[in-house]
Design a protein that fits this description.
27% of the residues lie in helices and 17% in strands. The chain has a 21-stranded parallel sheet. It starts with a helix and ends with a helix. The protein binds 2-acetamido-2-deoxy-beta-D-glucopyranose (NAG) (5 copies). Belongs to the Toll-like receptor family.
Length: 795
């Protein structure tokens, strides 16, 4: 194969794989169709042919024909319960060979007709209007049947025969309201099922003689047992129960929805006590009447677990002590009583075999099992959701219990240190005190060897530091409290799981992970974190542990404060190290200041910075003034740009430096000796020059002051050349003039010198550029250039 060929070949394979994946994906999205509760009258026609699960329950469908579902050849699960179907020909499923789960319960089926049919695993025909059991002989071929739901008002032994050879996992039999007229007690005997659930008709006294003891059944559930009439004392039902004794395989018995008397209730318990039943559960019981003292025969029982759920009693004056006595002395391992009005439970009169007691959701008080030494074998005790108030009483209650896991959550427990007594049994390993009203003081009343401690949803504000250490504590849950700090593991050296979310922790300590070396999991989210500098260290410390350790990270860890960071994830909160470290900040500011000062000093010393600054300052000022210049005014004095006055001693500098530098920029200069008008005195010439020049430049030096200044002083005084704001004057200080050398009568010169409004001729060559620039700016070259054009036309 050539290289190109092989590439094409590979692409083709990849393409086909993708195609296949795509097909599978579209399959996955197609096959589940839920059209329940959509008001359908017919089976919808628009279904995908790939549909495997179809739910059209709770609609108004009254008919099911082959054409409805013929095309759904992939259908495996079909749920049409709670509709109005009255008749069914099971051969409508002839073409749905994959169908294995069919739920037709809660319809109005009166009749089905059977033909060779599919091999279902689950067929539910319960809660329908059948008169006789809807079992066709064809059902005998459903070799895989696991669940069969039936309903009937009349039972016949013969009806069951077609399926007698099948071993069905569970059979549900719902008896219609008119059941019971012509009963055949033996009618269910041929049923071959592991688990049987019979629903008796509601609103009918239990008057049945049906034998529910099926040889094969391990588990039996009976619903709707109503026997309140005193004259029969529930004898029919007790008779049914008594027959259970002959089935030694039966181990699970469940009774649902019972209305009877206290007396019958205890009799029912007594009756089951002597069967092979191991797990007995009773739920939804309504009890009437009173209970007088009676003996309970605990002997000869297989029972291990009794669960009683949801009992209401219509008598309030009932003397409950008999009941407590009967319950507490039961010789079983597991006993559950939940959702009742039980207020108390007495101590067993001898060492009890109870291992697991669940008395949650009742009305028990702290006095439960008061002073009880006979529950020493108890392993778990749940008193969740009761009326417990004082923790000290619970501590006292458990003092004889050897290895207990205790759940006293969802009560109103509190602990008052002043009440003293707090010596938990040493062996208490797991304690659930969540959802109570416990405060910080609870940490002074904890079992010393406790491993699992649940204190969530209480009123704890902080964990006192001086508590006795709980060295065995591995799991601590203090979520939903008001803790302001993350505790260290000082007192809990074995702590591996800490749940502390939903508290008031704003600045968790960064030392947590150092202190808690054994921590495997910490859940600290949903606290009002203050995103300030202190928090950075904590965030960093989280970064150093493995991500699995911090539960809920990063999503439930958010800033609460300051406002600008609110709801920012801690993971995304960053501040610069500088702004957080005061020492570093001070050092940085100090160093920066120092460097600046040194730089300035160096600049001053080596580069004469002040001179530059002055020059720059003057330059900007002249630029600024130039902008305000009035052109009209210029036009009057345009013959020269500048007049230069200087001492003859300085003429070398003027001729070799000043003139060339100005004239090369086309600045017209008036020199009194060069532009001398004969017949005028020197002073007159000077004055003419000044008057025809825009600016007057004076080259100042000690010589100038000595020899020339006097010529001008008079004129200046006369023409107010120095009055405030005059800007036609430019002074160049060629050489420093000592103050004392200025004659005392030269006021103006002194003022000008003091104001430093002169340009200083720098000795350093590199500064000359700036000097000339400044000077030219003072003469307003630009403006002069513009003005020059105007001048030409004017002249
Ligand atoms: C049930 O359907 C099958 C196949 O469609 C048909 O042969 C049979 O006659 C029907 N049975 C009744 C009672 O209608
Ligand atoms: C059960 O199936 C067998 C073979 O598949 C067939 O011979 C027999 O007639 C079927 N019985 C019924 C009642 O449909
Ligand atoms: C019987 O009850 C026990 C405990 O509830 C349960 O584990 C077991 O599965 C039940 N057995 C049957 C056959 O239902
Ligand atoms: C008793 O209850 C405990 C705890 O609920 C459970 O683990 C155990 O399996 C139960 N034992 C029996 C025999 O039902
Ligand atoms: C404690 O009891 C509560 C219910 O009241 C439950 O949600 C929680 O999981 C229990 N804690 C432990 C550690 O079992």
């Amino acid at each position: 194969m050539t290289k190109t060929n092989s590439t094409i070949f590979h692409s083709a394979i990849i393409f086909m794989l993708l195609l296949e994946i795509k097909i599978q994906l579209s399959d996955a999205s197609d096959f589940l169709v839920d059209r329940s509760k959509t008001g359908l009258i017919h089976v919808p026609k628009d279904l995908s042919l790939k549909t495997t699960n179809l739910d059209i329950s709770r609609n108004c469908i009254s008919e099911l024909s082959a054409s409805d579902i013929l095309s759904l050849s992939k259908l495996r699960i079909l749920i049409i319960s709670h509709n109005r179907i009255q008749y069914l020909n099971i051969s409508v499923f002839e073409f749905n060979q994959e169908l294995e789960y069919l739920d037709l319960s809660h319809n109005m089926l009166e009749k089905i007709s059977c033909h060779p049919t599919v091999n279902l695993k689950h067929l539910d025909l319960s809660f329908n209007a059948f008169d006789f059991l809807p079992i066709c002989k064809e059902f005998g071929n459903m070799s895989q049947l696991q669940f069969l739901g039936l309903s009937a008002t009349r039972l016949q032994k013969s009806s069951v025969l077609p399926i007698a050879h099948l071993h069905i996992g569970k059979v549900l039999l719902v008896l219609g309201d008119s059941y019971g007229e012509k009963e055949d007690p033996e009618s269910l005997q041929e049923l071959n099922t592991e688990s049987l659930h019979i629903v008796f008709p509601t609103s009918q006294e239990f008057h049945f003689i049906l034998d529910v003891s099926i040889n094969t059944a391990v588990s039996l559930e009976l619903s709707n047992i109503q026997c309140v009439l005193h004259n029969n004392g529930c004898s029919y039902f007790l008779n049914v129960l008594s027959k259970l004794q002959k089935n030694s395989r039966l181990s699970n018995l469940t009774l649902n929805n019972i209305i009877t008397t206290w007396y019958s209730f205890i009799t029912i318990l007594q009756s089951v006590w002597h069967t092979s039943v191991e797990f007995f559960s009773i739920s939804n019981v309504k009890l009437q009447g009173h209970l007088d003292f009676r003996d309970f025969d605990y002997s000869d029982t297989s029972l291990k677990t009794l669960s009683i759920h949801q009992v209401v009693s219509d008598t309030f004056t009932l003397s409950q002590s008999y009941i407590y006595k009967i319950f507490s002395n039961m010789n079983i391992q597991n006993f559950t009583v939940t959702g009742t009005q039980m207020m108390h439970m007495v101590c067993p009169s001898q060492m009890s075999p109870f291992l697991h007691l669940d008395f949650s959701n009742n009305l028990l008080t702290d006095m439960v099992f008061n002073n009880c030494g006979n529950l020493a074998r108890l392993e778990t005790l749940s008193l969740q959701m009761n009326q417990l108030k004082k923790l000290a009483n619970i501590v006292h209650m458990t003092k004889e219990m050897k290895s207990l896991q205790l759940d006293i959550s969802q009560n109103s427990l509190s602990y008052d240190e002043n009440e003293g007594y707090c010596f938990w049994t040493i062996s208490l390993l797991s304690l659930n005190m969540s959802s109570n009203i416990l405060t910080n003081s609870v940490f002074r009343c904890l079992p010393p060897r406790v491993k699992v401690l649940d204190l969530h949803n209480n009123r704890i504000r902080n964990i006192p530091t001086d508590v006795t250490s709980l060295e065995a504590l591995q799991e601590l849950n203090v979520a939903f409290n008001s803790l302001a700090h993350l505790p260290g593991c000082g007192s809990f050296s074995s702590l591996s799981v800490l749940t502390i979310d939903y508290n008031a922790i704003s600045n968790p300590s960064a030392h947590f992970f150092q202190s808690c070396q054994k921590i495997r999991s910490i859940k600290a989210g949903n606290n009002p974190f203050q995103c300030t500098c202190e928090l950075r260290e904590f965030i960093q410390s989280i970064g150093q542990v493995s991500r699995e350790v911090v539960e809920g990270w990063p999503d439930s860890y958010k800033c609460d404060y300051p406002e600008s960071y609110k709801d920012t994830l801690l993971k995304d909160f960053h501040v610069s190290p500088l702004s957080c470290n005061t020492a570093l900040l001070i050092v940085t500011i100090g160093v920066t200041g120092l460097v600046f000062a040194v730089t300035v000093t160096i600049l001053c010393i080596y580069f004469d910075l002040p001179w530059y600054l002055r020059m720059m300052c003057q330059w900007t000022q002249t630029r600024h003034r130039a902008r305000n210049i009035n052109l009209d005014e210029l036009q009057r004095t345009l013959q020269f740009h500048a007049f230069i006055s200087y001492s003859g001693h300085d003429s070398v500098w003027v001729k070799s430096e000043l003139l060339p530098n100005l004239e090369k920029e086309d600045i017209r200069i008036c020199l009194h000796e060069r532009n001398f008008v004969p017949g005028k005195s020197i002073v007159e010439n000077i004055v003419t020059c000044i008057e025809n020049s825009y600016k007057s430049i004076f080259v100042l030096s000690p010589n100038f002051v000595q020899s020339e200044w006097g010529h001008y002083e008079l004129y200046f005084a006369h023409h107010h050349l120095f009055h405030e704001g005059s800007n036609n004057l430019i002074l160049i200080l060629l050489e420093p003039i000592p103050k004392y050398s200025i004659p005392s009568s030269y006021h103006k010169l002194k003022i000008l010198m003091a104001q430093r409004t002169y340009l200083e001729w720098p000795k350093e060559k590199n500064k000359h550029g700036l000097f000339w620039a400044n000077l030219r700016a003072s003469i307003h070259i630009k403006l002069m250039k513009q003005a020059k054009e105007i001048a030409h036309t004017y002249i």
